[in-house]
Amino acid sequence: MPAETTPADTDGSTVDVLVTLLDDGVAPPAYAHPGDAGADLTTTEDVELGPLQRAVVPTGIAIALPDGYAAFVHPRSGLAAKHGVTVVNAPGTVDAGYRGEIKVVLANTDPTATVRLERGDRIAQLVVQRVERARFVTAQKLPGSHRGAGGFGSSGGHTGA
């Protein structure tokens, strides 16, 4: 019997990503709700992050993305808001050619409280996106733009000193 298709399957908004489970007890990445952009990643081990500490945390999965795609590891908003836990290099980039275990560099930004994570806890989100490959062309001069060379803070938005 053929697999059932959903609108997402027929409108081109899904992509098959091969997943290898490197740990018998780990689940593959999963979306918590329909329409979510990020699939949850879990930890395969208990982790204790002291105040202002960081750790490289294993997820027990490896993936194979098709060419033209990358996966980005984002922090979980609940962990950030409730405990100050974030992903240090957010978003972490998983290239299409990478086949090793996805690990997440977590940091506890709280200056006083220790955060404990247990095996199976959701620690980050994986967002899979199509990416363009750029061809970098050397130019003697760049064309003008409205913004120009204005950098950090050039658009305003902060009234404090």
Structure characteristics:
disordered N terminus; 2 helices; single chain; 11 strands; Deoxyuridine 5'-Triphosphate Nucleotidohydrolase, Chain A; mainly beta
What does this structure look like?
By secondary structure, the chain is mostly beta strands. The protein has one domain (7-130): Distorted Sandwich (Deoxyuridine 5'-Triphosphate Nucleotidohydrolase, Chain A). Helices cover 7% and strands 32% of the residues. It is built from 2 helices and 11 strands. A 4-stranded antiparallel sheet has the order 2-11-6-8. A 3-stranded antiparallel sheet has the order 4-9-7. The longest helix has 7 residues, at 77-83. The chain starts with 6 loop residues before the first helix and ends in a 31-residue tail after the last strand. Residues 1-8 have low confidence and may be disordered.
TL;DR of this structure?
With 161 residues, the protein is mainly β.
Which helices and strands occur, and which strands form pairs?
Elements: H1 7-10, E1 18-21, E2 39-42, E3 47-49, E4 54-58, E5 61-64, E6 69-75, H2 77-83, E7 85-87, E8 92-94, E9 103-108, E10 115-117, E11 122-130
Antiparallel strand pairs: 1-5, 2-11, 3-10, 4-9, 6-8, 6-11, 7-9
CATH topology: Deoxyuridine 5'-Triphosphate Nucleotidohydrolase, Chain A
CATH superfamily: Deoxyuridine triphosphatase (dUTPase)
Measured by DSSP, the beta-strand proportion falls in 25-35%
- Report the strand count: 11
Distance between the termini: 66 Å
Helical proportion?
A: under 10%
Round the mean pLDDT to the nearest integer and report it: 90
Specify the CATH class: Mainly Beta
| Tally of separate domains | 1
- Please identify the structural class as seen in this structure: mainly beta
In this structure, how is the largest beta sheet organized?
4 strands, antiparallel
Strand order of the largest sheet: 2-11-6-8
Radius of gyration of CA atoms, rounded to a whole number: 20 Å
Architecture, according to CATH? Answer: Distorted Sandwich
Number of helical stretches of at least 4 residues: 2
Low-confidence stretches: 1-8
Order of helices and strands: HEEEEEEHEEEEE
Shape: globular
